[in-house]
Design goal:
Helix content is 25%, strand content 37%. The chain is of the alpha+beta class.
Length: 121
Amino acid sequence: MADRLRESLGPNAVANLGGDLSAGGDGPDGAGWPVGLAGVTVLLRDRGAATSSVRRRRWGELHHLIDPRTGEPARTGLEEVSVIATNGLEAEIVAKTALLLGPELAPVYCAAFALAWWLSP
């Protein structure tokens, strides 16, 4: 959805939908759109970013991210994954999948499908 919204805003725009982001064009100063990910600011041009986390949307020990293998809230050893990819949709897919894969497989998966990533145990 972030990709569609950004495209409708024009060639030099950013759309941030609460964790799913799409940035197009050179940004406000020509260096890219400043985006905060994992405590650092990166400049994005024609890229997407997404963060998947179990730190929010919690109800006690339960959270919103369901592991499709078990049908239960995911318990993978990772709490948050942030990803930069070629567009917002790819970033969201990679971030969620990496979080579900856990700390052993997530780096290999991200190396294959993301441009950059951050993992938080």
